[in-house]
Specification:
9 helices, 248 residues, single chain, seven-stranded mixed beta sheet, globular
C-alpha cells in the first residue's frame, strides 16, 4: 500500500519547485495548516522569508510550537479572502489543497494579486471540475456525500481557474494534472481496504494487521463502500490540479 506521508511530502516538494523561489524572496503560504509546507519552503530556501498563514488559531499555535524557532520563518492567523498585508509585500504565494474550502476564490485571487508585484508567482494546488459543464454534477447524490465528507460547497473548473486568474491580473504559466499521483492512488487504497472490509476473511485480515479495525461493524463497512463509490463518481468528473500564475 502507498505511503501517504511520503506521497504528501512529494506533493509539497513538487509544488515548491513550481513556485521557483529565488534567493531573498518573500514567500506566503496561504492556508498552511499546521505549518509543515511553510517549514519545507524554509528548509529548501533558508535565505528567503517565509510566512505561513492559516484561518484557524489552533493550527497556527501548533505550527509555532513545531517550527517557529528559526530565523526567517513565522506563522500568523489570517483570512485568505482578506490578506492583512501591504500591497506587493510578497514575491511568491502558494496555496496547497485548501482553496476548495474558500467561500470566494475570486476574492482570494484578487487579494493574492494585490500582495504580489508584477512578475510575482502564485501556485495553487486544488481540486477542479474537468470542464464548465461538469459542474452539473455538483448536486448529484454521490457528490453530496463527498461534499459533506470534505466540507466544500463547489469547485472551480479548470477553464474557470484560467479565466478568473486572468481577471485578477495573472497570466497562466502552466497547469498540471496530478490526479495520477494523488487522487488515483489514494482512491485505489481506499477501494482495496473497502473490498477487504466487506468480506469475512478480509475483516479478519484487517483486524490481524490492526486491532482497531475490530471496532468497525459490518454496517460501517457498507457505508465505507458507499463512500468509495461516491468518491469514484466525483473523481470521474474532476481533476487534482496545480496551477502556476504570474502577476502581469
Amino acid at each position: 500500500m502507498p505511503n501517504m506521508e511520503w506521497a504528501q511530502q512529494r506533493l509539497v516538494r513538487k509544488s515548491i519547485h513550481l513556485l521557483m523561489v529565488l534567493q531573498g524572496d518573500r514567500v506566503l503560504d496561504v492556508a498552511c495548516g499546521r505549518g509543515k509546507s511553510s517549514f519545507k519552503v524554509h528548509c529548501l530556501h533558508p535565505d528567503s522569508t517565509v510566512v505561513g498563514m492559516d484561518l484557524l488559531d489552533r493550527n497556527v499555535q501548533v505550527a509555532r510550537t513545531l517550527f517557529d524557532q528559526v530565523a526567517n520563518l513565522s506563522y500568523r492567523a489570517g483570512d485568505a479572502m482578506n490578506l492583512d498585508f501591504p500591497d506587493a509585500s510578497f514575491d511568491r504565494v502558494m496555496c496547497l489543497e485548501a482553496a476548495f474550502h474558500f467561500p470566494d476564490r475570486v476574492r482570494f485571487q484578487s487579494e493574492v494579486s494585490r500582495v504580489l508585484p508584477p512578475g510575482g508567482r502564485l501556485v495553487v494546488v486544488d481540486f477542479a471540475w474537468n470542464s464548465d459543464s461538469e459542474r452539473a454534477h455538483r448536486d448529484d447524490p454521490e457528490t453530496k456525500i463527498v461534499r459533506d465528507v470534505w466540507q466544500w460547497n463547489d469547485l472551480f473548473s479548470v477553464p474557470e481557474y484560467e479565466r478568473t486568474g486572468g481577471a485578477a491580473g495573472f497570466r497562466l504559466l502552466s497547469s498540471h494534472d496530478w490526479s495520477q499521483w494523488v487522487t488515483r492512488p489514494m482512491q485505489s487504497l481506499f477501494r482495496r481496504v473497502s473490498a477487504l472490509g466487506n468480506t469475512n476473511w478480509g475483516r479478519r485480515f484487517l483486524a490481524w494487521k490492526n486491532p482497531l479495525y475490530r471496532s468497525i461493524s459490518i454496517e460501517d463497512w457498507e457505508q465505507v463502500a458507499h463512500a468509495v463509490r461516491a468518491h469514484d463518481h466525483v473523481r470521474s468528473v474532476s481533476k487534482y490540479m496545480a496551477f502556476v500564475f504570474e502577476k502581469r
